[in-house]
């Protein structure tokens, strides 16, 4: 497991495992994220896993005062190196698989036809391909609980809309190029909308404010409009 | 116990910030100027992380429906109760029935109004900060509006003692009484400079920029554009050229990251920034200068100065030592009052 430590401003460090967006690199990110979740360093205030690296925020003053040093970055690196050295021998935690029910097409997925036409497929084929992908959440970012999901089959790759929509409802599942994603909050956006999930991705009042976390596997399951509405009622 | 008669330009409840939820895409928010935020809290006997009002340029009108101990730090927005002007960096007893108004913005951009006990709103993910983008935290997840009523929390024993002591000293006609001590405004004066110096360390992609951009980044001042808010400051007047055309993968950003989108005009990310971003990062603002930057307003000029990581940490420690000394002195005044 190769890595590089880099200072990121005066209160963060980036642990870089590589440059390429590959599952093998993301596995290292995930291993460290799992470790930090269960064993946070006492100087760590937050961490952000990304595609090829993970950023840890620290409290320089706390470290300087508690360790009687003027070099908090060295303390952070030393702690990280000892953990990263052992981490290669730790087995990967099995990923959670989260089922995301999606009502495809119709009013919930106004761009299903666009995607089908662009790829010379029928609507049914698009739904089948999208719901059979092997998906991995690489990171959560951009906006609260927004998952960057990799693994969409290239057969349904579709460019963004030329003109973004002013408002896309929360729960909308979209495609942008080779990526698929879910809007946790209503927001403007240029993604091709293929369907909508009744699940709430952003739950600010919950212990776990984001339904998904980096490293989760995702399975999209087609549901009917009636099932979607029933789900919605159960949520209210 | 306070009622918002006029909301001002942008008045919101903020504290230290929502720390530790960034892995879920939840931004930290919190007071833009953490220094003034902490000082204001200490001046009313709070621990230092109670929720305060962050007041932007044009202040609100606030009616006090109960006696209160308050302090204002940061920008000078000409606060007054009736004819009596309130000085920044002082502790005030304000009698029930008083109305606090703000006037001209004399210096800085953001004032912090602390009240003994802090503003009592529910915690969302362990913080009272308003996160405007997601409509959570603070008062109903939004900026304050006319008619909103806010309660103060339970004050500390020292604050209670001071409240009683100041109330007794106040004449029967006056509405407000100023404690006979205060903190020096040397920090506040630094935001009135013509060109505000901001210290930075090099960013991850500094070397991707062409030689002229790397030089001009420090040699030429930037203007803060009118499109600047709690999420970020857009900078103008000094376009930067990125030599690398490689698409970057999104990754973590921080309060103080200076990123450069393809148009070459940098953006400094501020308290309400998104947790991740995909633009190249030319520099990172030193934590010690974030409060100063938070007091710069659209139209102001700033100039970056390069410092090492070691210097950034040294400055941070010096600042903290000075602040702790100040805190000790404030606490002593409270004991003697």
Task: Describe the 3D structure.
The complex is a heterodimer of chains A (236) and B (337). Chain A has helices at 23-38, 60-67, 72-87, 112-118, 123-131, 225-235, and strands at 4-8, 12-16, 44-49, 53-58, 97-104, 135-140, 147-150, 165-168, 172-176, 179-182, 187-189, 192-196, 217-222. Chain A has 236 residues and is of the alpha+beta class. Chain A is elongated. The mean pLDDT of chain A is 93. Chain B is of the alpha+beta class and 337 residues long. Chain B has two domains: 2-184, no CATH class; 193-306, Cyclophilin (Beta Barrel). Chain B is built from six helices and 21 strands. The mean pLDDT of chain B is 93. The interface between A and B is large, with 47 and 39 residues. Chain A: Keywords: ATP-binding, Hydrolase, Nucleotide-binding. Chain A: It comes from Tigheibacillus jepli. Chain A: One of its GO terms (molecular function) is 5-oxoprolinase (ATP-hydrolyzing) activity.
Count of extended strands of chain A: 13
Helix-residue proportion of chain B: 10-25%
CATH topology of the largest domain in chain A: Cyclophilin
Query: Poorly predicted ranges of chain A (pLDDT <50, ≥5 residues)?
Result: none
From the structure provided, what is the oligomeric state, counting identical versus distinct chains? heterodimer
Helices and strands of chain A, in order, run as: EEHEEHHEHHEEEEEEEEH
Strand content of chain A: 25-35%
Shape of chain A: elongated
CATH architecture title of the largest domain in chain A: Beta Barrel
Query: Considering DSSP H and I runs of 4 or more, what fraction of the residues of chain A is helical?
Result: 25-40%
